[in-house]
Structures are given as structure tokens and as C-alpha cells.
């Protein structure tokens, strides 16, 4: 396995490459000879490449940036909901190669693992090095401790997926996985600390501090959903008035507008009606936007992280009412505090699946054995 220094180099090149040797020595606190020594086995074994000479604007020899070898490996990522599988194939930097949504045929764990294998193979992407799976709930050491949307308790799901696909499987809470994707390859890359807030069927919350995502069993409990945001808001299913779930979930927003219009509407129609100026939809959307701003400000205030990544399948709310969200954030921040920087990932369910793929990529880096690199990152998938 890699030493700590080798792992740090591999991650730095993967996340920030192409990257010059001078930037690497500064980022990793290494001397140039130490960097040369560490990089040599990666270059000799074809895991990294030196790119053509280029000038970095300084006086002296042109630099030859280091990068990951093109086409080194592919990965699959799967986000499981109670109704569907959202499956992606990615490159080694979680760049999207293919995406498919597949209805969930049942909730038996073995059956779900078999469905995942069929969909991954059907993406038509070869050389899959590993598969990551994310879901709502608590996971540990490849086991799903509980997943309320699937009615699972103590399921060794990584082992089931590995048996179907013949490649290493990584299991993670969906919010933690999304935070990892944003930290390594997404809107949060290069930001030392930020909160991740997702809105959609539920309310999600994750945290990155000092460049590390917080991994906690608590991520699967849904603690952000019942934070009070509006004293006179609607009531959630648990009886909490004006909480995040009542104010911000797509189901609650659609139900409020449906009641006002006395006809059923879904979330997407609510956003279209509000954009067209419908009074009932506009009122509900404005209140939801203000609630989102208050939630962002509260998260930033309590965590001392003045940046937030907003994501989830319901994040179209932000683009429709951005000014109201930003005004609510500012209203709940001390004027002497740093303004909260907002970053929006509007890629929907594919963002969740890319999060799962990122966890598989991280685990693949940790598995690298430079003495056995003929296997590269990967075994050959089972047929």
C-alpha cells in the first residue's frame, strides 16, 4: 500500500492535475528531490505522466506538469432511492461518461445488487475499476446499518455488490458521498471548509472542515430536516411547524400550492407557475426561498464555515428566487462576518451518483500497491 507521502502525492495530482512540480512541493511541503523520488514509481508504472513543457510565467526552465495517465480507469456510481437507481459511469476524476435512471424493481438487497450489476454493465463503459453506492441511512465498513427508504437493517451490501460485479464496492451515506465529490472534484474543490445543503424529497446536510468531509453516523439520521425556520409555516409529518422539511421539501411545497389552487400540481409545475407570476405559487416559493436562506445562514453561523454548496433535485428553487435566498442569508449574518459564498450544483440526481463514484475513486487510490501495479487500480470485472 502507499505511504502517507505517496498517498498525498497521488491525491494532489488526481485532484489538482495537471500540476507543476513547484506547486506540488509547495502544496505538500516537500523538497524537489523528495518529490522526484516519490513521483518516479508512479511515472515508471504508468500511473502518472509528464506533460509537454510549458511556461509558468517565471524565469528559468519550462515546467513539465504531472497528471494522471489518460484513460487510467473508469468507475461506476449508484445512488439508491426508495424508487430508483441513479447510475453513472465516470472517469478517474468523476467526470460523467454515462448516466441512467432505472426503476427499482424491489427492495430485497440481493435483488438490488443484481439490478445494480445489470445497469452498470448496460452503461457500455469498459474497465470499471470499482463501484460506489450511496443511500440515505447509516453505513459502516461496507454494511448498511439502517436505510429507512429501503427498510434495510444490518445489510452487508458491499459484499453483495462485489459478488455480482467482481470489482471492489464502496458504500457510503449519500450526503457524505456528495460532500466528498464536491470536495475533490466539484464546487467545493480548493475550499477548505463549507457546508452542503440539499433540498428535494428530503433535506440533507453535510460538512467539510479543514479540507476533510465529516464522516458521521449522524449523517444518516436526517438531523437537518426539523430545524425550525418559520414560526407560521406549514406542519411537517412529525408535527413540527415551519421546520426545514415543511418549508423546503418538494412534496411539501407542491402540497401547499395544490391546496391553494384546489388541484394537484407537482414541484416542477410549482416552479413554472411561480416563474409565470402565479400568486399562490409565488407566495409559497418566496417563503421557501427565505427559509433556505435562513438555513444557509444558520449552518454557516454554527459551523464557522462561510461557504455553502447547494444541491439536490429540488435546487431549481434557488435559480428562481436567488435574490430572496441571498437576502435571507445576509439578514441572519452579523454584518462584520465574512459574506457567505454560495455555490450551486444543479446537476440533480447525477450529482448524487457522482458522489458515490467519488467514494469508489478514493478507495481505489488507497488500494494502490506500487509493487503490484500490473493490476493497476483494478481487477477485471466479472462477465
From TrEMBL:
InterPro entries: ATPase_NBD, ROK, WH-like_DNA-bd_sf, WH_DNA-bd_sf. Signal peptide: none annotated. Belongs to the ROK (NagC/XylR) family. It comes from the Bacteria. It comes from Cellulomonas xylanilytica. This is MarR family transcriptional regulator.
